[in-house]
Amino acid sequence: MKSTTPVAKWAALASFFAPPAALAAVRPPYIDPEALPNTSVFKGPWERYIKAPEDKTRIVASRIWDAEGNVTTSGLEAVEVGAKAADAFDHGITVGPGGVLTLEFEENIAGRVCFDVSSAGNDPEIYLAYSESSLYAGPQPDTTTEKLERDLPLHFEFDDTTGTVCVGKEFLRGAFKYLTLSMPEYPVLSDDRFIEQPRPEGQAVLGHDDDDDNDKQAPLYPSGRDPYKKPWVTLQNLWVNCTAFPSQTNGRAYSGYFHSSNSMLNRIWYAGAYTLQLSTVDPREGSALIDYNRDWDHNESPTGSWYSNFTIANGTAVTTDGAKRDRIVWPGDMSIAVPGIAVSTYDMLAVRNALDVLLDHQYPDGSLPYAGPPLGFRGEFSDTYHLHTLLGAYNYVKFSGDVDWLARRWPAYLKALDVSINKVDHTGLLHVTSGADWLRPGMTGHNLEASALLSAVLDKSIKLAEWLRDDRPAARPHGVWSGTRTALNSGIQQLFCKDTGLYSDNIGRRSCRGPEHTDPQDGNSWALISGAAPRSRRAVVSESLRSRWTKHGAPAVEFPNVISPFVSSFELLAHAAANDHDAAVELMLLEWSYLLDGPGFTNSTLAEGFMVDGGVQYPAYWSAARNSHCHGWSSGPTSVLTSEVLGIQLLSPRAPSGPSARTSPSGSASRGAGSRRPRARSR
Predict the structure, then answer these.
(1) Where is the secretion signal located (predicted)?
(2) Which of 98, 172, 269, 344 could form a disulfide with 112 if both were Cys (CB 3.0 to 4.6 A apart)?
(3) In three state form, how does the secondary structure of 403-444 look?
């Protein structure tokens, strides 16, 4: 089915591009990825769509979401639900036994909670519960781990302290929009359903640094308080010190911008950029997977507990999969995240640190780990994520111009590339040896997605060799790399199903005539992106993918009942590769508008996935509360709008006066949309 929605429905447009003379007059500045700007590079109306705070050290709640039980103003008046939080705190909010107070922040945020305490009595203690979604706002948190349906609330003791006190640095929360404070009814004689444990020996805890800030860190240990006393605490304010996107002192100082006449497209672009910011963390504040951390740090944290103090990489910043969880380096996610980072914040330092940790943990046979630490300890491997690491290297070098880094990493890259080439057999397809992928089932045998990914990687590898001026025989026009790519593109054609106009998952049970026939969204998208699909079939595949869209987006049929913004991001690229940019934009407006405005989502960041009927549960997890509502792999529109719809594409990092680029707007789909991108000079 051909895309027929009039472009005028989403953009009534006028070209944003200036003539060469005008461009010369407003030549954009050089952006140093190791010293990102702290002021706006381009000021304009697009800045109102930016979600990140200018001052991330003190983020305050926007309103009172709920108040129950013993919660009053300092004048003993009821706290009004829906009131501005600042107004309520101006009068002081007192929480006593049985009181429950839930605060809502304007955006999904991250960081360490601090309190301005005006008075307290009888050793007050509260429980803190965090949630990204309004559906799980309350005394029980959402969840980061697989063991329990909900995380344990964090136990916090004020110890009659006044002034500013903060939770321990190891208990910064990676993402939340709702924060609930609750004080138990008394007497409380014993309860182990909260986090209150001595720090285990060997656990890498970020210590409190008095030179770093002036606030006091609340004790982690119980105070031995009298369980029959009636405590209370009056708060004059509550705020969050956000430690995400550590490379940026001003979160609103982007290096790249986007603006169009369609407000939803603008919102989607900036939500993707903000999602990538919150998912970029201090490497010492990583990994919510405490059970995997245990292989390295031997922690004794109780089931359902959480912390954010595991070192996942070197350096000062690293891009991860998600803000709440998993807070580790996942190569597949980077295939979407890196181009998005490049056109928005340009935090290439965080990208390089992520690639370094993957390559530093390369296995002896050349295979690359499924993910960064704490994974890799047990030899975890994925054929597809192995290839995504190589794509990440290409994207990093293209956008950063860091050819020196590539030269240092080239031997490891070549060794990894050979691992995948050697899995292509007489069928002309890659025979996967691991079932691991993006958690979808059925990754087995001679697989479409893996084969198309390798085809794309081989094409990029030839370009990398050119940038390095490496004239090895394998990289030449008739060498092993181009020959293997030709064989793959030919072998993939045996998977094409004329009845559906799509490629099947493999040549086995999930083939066109197999008992489990599946035409995967991921593999078909990559067949178009890689160029494996011949020109005569590209429109057919694009239209067949589009014909499967449902009310809320494009289903990933290889994973029943799942809409995956990760795989849909690849579908956006696929439609662009088939020259149907209107379909790409329509899918953004269908799926990503729901990710922003659908019930239970954050209206500011992009979730990991959801159910076909629109439910916020991501079926990969048994607990609906585990869904990450800030996941970098969902940010595809941020780069696709810039590079494909507007057609601003970086072709090469090497040129005498800087990178080689082209601007090729996609006809009607680009009218009235504009983007500004500072030049990224080769270094």
Answers:
(1) 1-24
(2) 172
(3) HHHHHHHHHHHHHHHHHHHCCECCCCCEECCCCCCCCCCCCC
> Could you tell me the two tokens for 577?
């590769």
Give the pLDDT of residue 36. 92
240: three-class secondary structure by DSSP: strand
Is it the case that residue 128 has pLDDT exceeding 70?
yes
603 contact partners, CB below 8 Å, separation of at least 6: 107, 596, 597
Backbone angles phi, psi at 269, to 5 degrees: -60, -50
Pick 680 or 654 by higher pLDDT.
654
pLDDT tens digits along 415-474: 999 999 999 999 999 999 999 999 999 999 999 999 999 999 999 999 999 999 999 999
What value does the CA radius of gyration of the chain take, rounded to a whole number of Å?
Answer: 26
Burial 640-666 (b: 16+ CB within 10 A, else e): bbbbbbbbbebeebbeeeebeeeeebb
Average pLDDT value over all residues in the chain: 89
Dihedral Cα 281, 283, 285, 289, nearest 10 deg: 100
For CA atoms 553, 609, 317, 245, the dihedral sign is positive
Q: Integer distance in angstroms from the first to the last C-alpha of the chain? A: 46
Q: What is the dihedral of CA 16, 343, 589, 332, to 10 degrees?
A: 160
Distance in angstroms (rounded) separating the CA atoms of residues 156 and 159: 9
SS3 state of residue 197: coil
Q: Which two three-digit tokens encode residue 373?
A: 């630490």
Nearest to 7 by CA among 617, 668, 524: 668
∠ CA 136-139-144, nearest 5°, is 55
What are the φ/ψ torsions at residue 584 (nearest 5 degrees)? -60, -45
Count H helices, E strands: the chain? 16, 21
387-401 per-position pLDDT tens digit: 999 999 999 999 999
Contact 539, 3 (CB under 8 A): no
Distance CA 680, CA 653 (A): 8
Question: What domains, with CATH codes, occur in the chain?
Answer: 18-27+246-282+317-676 (1.50.10.10), 59-241 (2.60.120)
Q: Give the side-chain half-sphere CA count within 13 A for 669.
A: 27
Residue 666, pLDDT score:
64
Distances (CA, A) of 344 to 31, 150, 391: 12, 34, 19
